From TrEMBL, chain A:
Native source species: Capronia epimyces CBS 606.96
Chain segments annotated as transmembrane: 20-41, 62-83, 103-125, 137-162
Name used for this protein in its record: V-type proton ATPase proteolipid subunit
Pfam families, per database record: ATP-synt_C
One Gene Ontology MF term: proton-transporting ATPase activity, rotational mechanism
Subunit text: V-ATPase is a heteromultimeric enzyme composed of a peripheral catalytic V1 complex (components A to H) attached to an integral membrane V0 proton pore complex (components: a, c, c', c'', d, e, f and VOA1). The decameric c-ring forms the proton-conducting pore, and is composed of eight proteolipid subunits c, one subunit c' and one subunit c''.
Record keywords: Hydrogen ion transport, Ion transport, Membrane, Transmembrane, Transmembrane helix, Transport, Vacuole
Cell compartments where the protein resides: Vacuole membrane
Function: Proton-conducting pore forming subunit of the V0 complex of vacuolar(H+)-ATPase (V-ATPase), a multisubunit enzyme composed of a peripheral complex (V1) that hydrolyzes ATP and a membrane integral complex (V0) that translocates protons. V-ATPase is responsible for acidifying and maintaining the pH of intracellular compartments.
Bilayer disposition of the protein: Multi-pass membrane protein
Domain spans labelled V-ATPase proteolipid subunit C-like: 24-82, 103-162
From TrEMBL, chain B:
Record's protein name: Uncharacterized protein
Region listing for Disordered, in residue ranges: 1-21
Species annotation: Capronia epimyces CBS 606.96
Main location: endoplasmic reticulum
Keyword Endoplasmic reticulum part of the UniProt annotation: yes
Cellular compartments annotated: Endoplasmic reticulum membrane; Endoplasmic reticulum-Golgi intermediate compartment membrane; Cytoplasmic vesicle, COPII-coated vesicle membrane
Sequence intervals crossing the membrane: 38-59, 71-90
Cellular component GO terms held in the UniProt record: endoplasmic reticulum membrane; endoplasmic reticulum-Golgi intermediate compartment membrane; ER to Golgi transport vesicle membrane
Length: 166, 110
């Protein structure tokens, strides 16, 4: 049993185990930045539409863009955390369990960030446009944006919990 | 050829009119629309959004949490949210100051 558990290529630490950890890093950054990019672009369309009529509202209309940036920060945090746990084989025996766990952490953060960015983009676009016509929409818009952004935060919490079990 | 000759002067006049009107609108609107304080605020928040989460992670991972990267990552996420709420508060305050200035101007005018 001792020979099975030691060294790369054994039963618990196969040679392909780091692939899943790397896939976790990549999926966190790719999907998280997809969501952040969609949120930024879609709400940017709304801000461009508002800015031609009411340039004084641009400062408050930029809130969805800031929130989309936070989605990308979540993805960056989990990617940095996973990357700090992966090392080349001679110094570190990377187990298959750790690889799957890092994949789960990266996928949960990335796909939750994609969902949050999608929600922020749509709410940011329409919310900013209706805020131009009715200023009382602002508090509701910010609340909806915060609830959308919290979806990404849930993914980050699950990712951090998973990542701390290695 | 006749058609193009007919069209040319009309096109010129419309383009001249549009150009003149757009120039006049730009001159009258850009000056008060983006004051320097707003640009400095936006630049400051952009810099804060880039530097504070990552900086807090790499500063706190060795100093405060002694290598526990999970707490440092959570701190980075919390600092990003702090920047967001600071931005929301600043944006709401700016709207209030704009309103107060407008009311002052109206009172002076009256």
């Amino acid at each position: 049993m001792a020979t099975l558990m030691e060294g790369p290529g054994s039963e618990y630490t196969p040679k392909f185990a780091p692939f899943f950890g790397m896939a976790g890093i990549a999926s966190a950054m790719i999907f998280g930045c997809l969501g952040a990019a969609y949120g930024t672009a879609k709400s940017g369309i709304g801000i461009a539409g508002v800015g031609t009529y009411r340039p004084d509202l641009i400062m408050k209309s930029l809130i969805p863009v800031v929130m989309s940036g936070i989605i990308a920060v979540y993805a960056l945090v989990i990617a940095v955390l996973i990357a700090s746990d992966i090392g080349p084989p001679p110094q570190q025996n990377y187990s298959l369990f750790t690889g799957f766990m890092h994949l789960a952490a990266g996928l949960s953060v990335g796909l939750a960030g994609l969902a949050a960015g999608y929600a922020i983009g749509i709410v940011g676009d329409m919310g900013v446009r209706s805020y131009m016509q009715q200023s009382r929409v602002f508090v509701g818009m910010v609340l909806i944006l915060i609830f959308g952004e919290v979806l990404g935060l849930y993914g980050l919490i699950v990712g951090l919990i998973l990542q701390s079990k290695s | 050829m006749a058609a193009t000759r007919r069209n040319n002067p009309s096109e010129k006049t419309t383009s001249d009119a549009q150009g003149a009107s757009s120039i006049s609108i730009q001159v009258s609107q850009t000056a008060p629309a983006v004051p320097a304080s707003v640009i400095y605020k936006l630049l400051g928040f952009t810099l804060a959004m880039i530097c504070i989460p990552i900086g807090s992670y790499f500063l706190s991972v060795d100093v405060f949490f002694r290598g526990n990267a999970t707490y440092a990552g959570a701190l980075a996420a919390i600092m990003a949210n702090v920047v967001l709420f600071a931005y929301i508060i600043v944006a709401m305050k700016e709207d209030q100051t704009d309103r107060l200035e407008d009311e002052k101007k109206r009172k002076k005018a009256q």
